[in-house]
Amino acid sequence: MRLTTEQWFSRLQDSICAELMEGGETVPFREDKWEREGGGGGRTRVLQEGTVIEKGGVNFSAVHGLLPQPVQESFKVDESEFFATGVSIVLHPRNPMVPIIHMNVRYFELTDKQSGKLSRQWFGGGIDLTPHYVDPEDARFFHQTLKETCDRFHPDYYPHFKAWADDYFYIPHRNETRGIGGIFFDRLSANDTFRIEDRWEFVKAVGETFTKVYLPLIRKNQQKTFTEEQKQWQLYRRGRYVEFNLVYDAGTKFGLQTSGRIESILMSLPLHVSWPYNFQPAAGSEEEKTLRWLRKGVDWV
Amino acid sequence: MRLTTEQWFSRLQDSICAELMEGGETVPFREDKWEREGGGGGRTRVLQEGTVIEKGGVNFSAVHGLLPQPVQESFKVDESEFFATGVSIVLHPRNPMVPIIHMNVRYFELTDKQSGKLSRQWFGGGIDLTPHYVDPEDARFFHQTLKETCDRFHPDYYPHFKAWADDYFYIPHRNETRGIGGIFFDRLSANDTFRIEDRWEFVKAVGETFTKVYLPLIRKNQQKTFTEEQKQWQLYRRGRYVEFNLVYDAGTKFGLQTSGRIESILMSLPLHVSWPYNFQPAAGSEEEKTLRWLRKGVDWV
Question: How far is B280 from B77, CA to CA, in rounded Å?
């Protein structure tokens, strides 16, 4: 499973980058290969000041080594070797009419140090969307496409993982969801219903859904004109994205604590952000309408 | 002590705002009075797009009520009533040659719910400086002035509180201090050496040091010209300020967890911020020199 997942994720990074370039982006990704001191490494691909993307990353990594002490404690396992591989994407578009997108797909396994035996293996990930302006039609298309992918594997997947995303991408101190959610899942391991290979087929399908769901949103919205006020609103909403990622996001926290490659982890932070004091959108404005959509439990499909 | 501290801090807010206006700022502070559901409230004064200050707040609050459950556990106390009052300041100047400053002075006390007796009382606070460009002469003036204030009360205060600031204002994932530090102290209570009144006199002196230490830095640097590249560097360094405040700052965390007034707490976040991917200043540049100063244990005096 290590070799299989690592190779497939590495190719997924290639194909997503290629499809984004075909989808209208003209500025190439810059690639940084890095190695991890404890074992493994990654290939970070970041694009900045592009035609479509203001800043974004499509990152691949495959790391391994001794499980850090604090993680060992939180996982309640003995001394273990871990292996983790996956693809992480955050794209902050230039045009405020194009939504921010995030995807992560990953495989994780633990080997007991004493016995040398595989003790745990699971998949995690998801795709979620953060529009600066919520367009219910786009939101429906986004969730419908994710639902179709989920439904190919199990009828419970979409409702379960959609609710999980609502709970996960939530900013308690703002009482807002980060965006319109999507799907989120973690620790998908083998059980009575699924073999580990079934989980893997699902995760591959999620990875392949990324461009299917995002390229149409770029095509539809990229040419729309916008005002200076709408650009300001985008910078303001990006502030929420930063608040979520730095205060609550488990992946970011894990990365900062375990001394991952900081610039690869924090590629998720936008190029330009603004925090005006106590900004309140005008009653009845498009901005206020968007705020009203940012709550848990909306049935988009 | 409640009434004394609350009244004095409230007047400190007034005098600091007035002195900043005399010090060259022409845009007035906007005042927002707010009440806390559980008891007490505050007076937030924020200034945005000023002549000297791009965004900054000089906030006063005096809150009380039942100590929230998680805080009760971390303090290891029985059910208690708390009272907290203080002044918090963060100023992000417009000109990158003027440093960012932060001050907090606060009084905290706990009353046992059962007995109705005062069970704990302490002071906390400090002043620290975050220059976008470290000027060793300004840094020396800043630390020397703080040291003189400290030395009036105890010879150990400055070395102790200076080291505390170095440890506190540190960003582990960047291996950088937030700025050039200053002084930081917490839980200063009565002991064999100090009565609670002695601690109070010291905290008042710290509050009075704020304008003495910052107005000269405005006067000296405010008229300096700067390039577009230097402004970009300022936006980039502000990103570190956000990373520290959202990931590590105990006061911010406490505020977000206990549902304080979010816009008052997050007034510390700058108006404009930038996170370019993997920015590295040129070898030998002023920016690189500044990075080399951002470490613990520099003896500025």
Answer: 48
- Is A269 within 8 Å of B239 when comparing Cβ atoms? yes
User: Is the C-alpha dihedral spanning A47, A49, A50, A54 positive or negative?
Assistant: positive
- If DSSP codes are grouped into helix, strand and coil, which group holds residue B58? strand
CATH number of residue B78's parent domain: 3.40.1500.10
CB contact B215 to A (< 8 Å): no
Does B301 reside within a domain? Answer: no
pLDDT in tens, A1-48: 999 999 999 999 999 999 999 988 999 999 999 999 889 999 999 999
Distance, in Å, from the CA atom of B103 to the CA atom of B48, rounded to the nearest integer, reads 18
Report the SS3 class of residue B97: coil
Question: Min CA distance, B61 vs chain A (Å)?
Answer: 17
Q: What are the tokens at A66?
A: 């001794």
Beta bridge partners of B165: none
Sheet holding A181-188, edge to edge: A30-35, A40-48, A53-66, A80-93, A100-112, A118-130, A181-188
CB of A172 less than 8 A from some CB of B? yes
Concatenating the DSSP letter of every residue in chain A gives -HHHHHHHHHHHHHHHHHHHHHTT--SPPEEEEEE-TTSEEEEEEEEES-SSEEEEEEEEEEEEEEPPHHHHHHHT-SSEEEEEEEEEEEEEESSTTSPEEEEEEEEEEEEETTT--EEEEEEEEEEEEE-SS--HHHHHHHHHHHHHHHHTT-TTHHHHHHHHHHHHSEEGGGTEESSSEEEEEEEE---SS--HHHHHHHHHHHHHHHHHHHHHHHHHHTT----HHHHHHHHHHHHHHHHHHHHT-HHHHHHHHTT--HHHHGGGS-SEEE--TT--PPTTSHHHHHHHH-STT----
Least Cα distance to A103 among A176, A232, A9 occurs for A9
3-class DSSP assignment, residue B161: helix
| Residue B106 to residue B119: CA distance in whole angstroms | 17
Q: Which of B16, B61, B30, B20 is nearest to B43 (CA)?
A: B61
Structural domain contains residue A299: no
Residue A298 covered by a domain: no
Distance, in Å, from the CA atom of B250 to the CA atom of A217, rounded to the nearest integer, reads 40
Segments forming the whole domain that contains residue B181? 2-293
A41 in any annotated domain? yes
Number of domains in chain A: 1
pLDDT digits (tens, 9 = 90+) for B36-58: 888 999 999 999 999 999 999 99
**Residue A11 identity (one-letter amino acid):** R
Whether the pLDDT of residue A257 is over 80: the answer is no
pTM comes to: 0.96
Per residue in A190-224, pLDDT (tens digit) is: 999 999 999 999 999 999 999 999 999 999 999 99
* Any A CB within 8 A of B251 CB: no
The ipTM value here is 0.95
B256, B262, B275 ranked by CB distance to A266: nearest: B275
Nearest by CB to B277, which of A259, A267, A277? Answer: A267
Residue with tokens 């992560």: A104
